[in-house]
Every structure is written in structure tokens, then in C-alpha cells.
Amino acid sequence: MKQAMENKNFTATLLVDQTPEQVFNAVKNVRGWWSENIEGGTENLNDVFKYHYEDIHLAKIKLIEVLPNKKIVWYVIENRFNFTKDQEEWTGDQMIFEITEKGNQTQLQFTQVGLVPEYECYEICFSSWNHYILDSLQSLITTGKGLPTIKEGKGKSLSS
Asked: Per CATH, is 34-143 categorized as 3.40.50.10890?
């Protein structure tokens, strides 16, 4: 497990004993590792899902690339934080999940293209992604149980 800044974009990488297919299926199970507060599809090309965390973070994300057992790319259509001056940080960013075989192991590299140290949310987002990728997603891949944010009451929403 390591985290690095490649081209200043946030990157987190993990190496597991599971197959590329198992890693791919875990990544698609967004409710199993990121948050149970997800509405919409998270598995197929052109799926759009909405994420929220209380009234602190709302996002609308589209799957723009899905290559089975190799790569998933999300595009942030809309995003709002209640703790940043720039309410649209993340809007237009891409989250890339790249899966490669490394000997008899599988490497997952997560990159958020656009999440750079200049962002107001960088420190919080850095810490959060490290938890969700390196702890929760890795746990989902290796044990079948992730550590997602649990379901809240009634969901919030962005425009449809």
C-alpha cells in the first residue's frame, strides 16, 4: 500500500492476491466500500449515480469508461461541498481505477485527475480517499466486507 502524487493528482495504489475480476467487481460495488448513500447504477457504461454525505458533500457521477477487469473511469458531472469557498471543486474531475496484473497479484491504482494540493478540500479528500481506497476497498476485495459510510435517513439530492 502506498499513496503518491503523480503529476500532482491524487493517487492511491494497492496490491492484493485476488484476481483482476474480483478487484473489478469490488470497485463496481460502490455501496460496499464508499458509501451506502448512493442512488443509481454504479456498474455499467453511462450509469449515473448520486452520492451524498449529510449536507456536507453532494456529487453526481457518470461512468464514462468500463473495461471489464481492467479499468473504470468516473466523471464528476456535478459536485458541492459545504466547507469550501469554491463550491464546485471536483466538478469535471475524473476518478480512474486501473487494474493490472503484477506477477501473481493484482494492482489497483486509483487516481483522481484534478484533485491537486491547491484544492481547498485536498487535505480532507486525501485523508478520505486513503481510507476508502486503502482501507475500505482493500477490505472489500480481500475479505468481502468493506467499511463504507452507513446509510443515512432520507437522501439529499442534486438536480436530476
From this structure: no
Cell numbers that stand for 18 in this block: 485476488
pTM of the model: 0.90
What would the pLDDT profile of 45-85 be if each residue is shown by its tens digit? 999 999 999 999 999 999 999 999 999 999 999 999 999 99
Exposure b/e, 115-137, CB count within 10 A at least 16 = b: beeebebeeebbeebeebbbebb
pLDDT tens for 146-160 read 999 999 864 455 554
Around Cβ 94, how many Cβ atoms within 10 Å? 17
How far, in Å, CA of 130 to CA of 137, rounded? 10
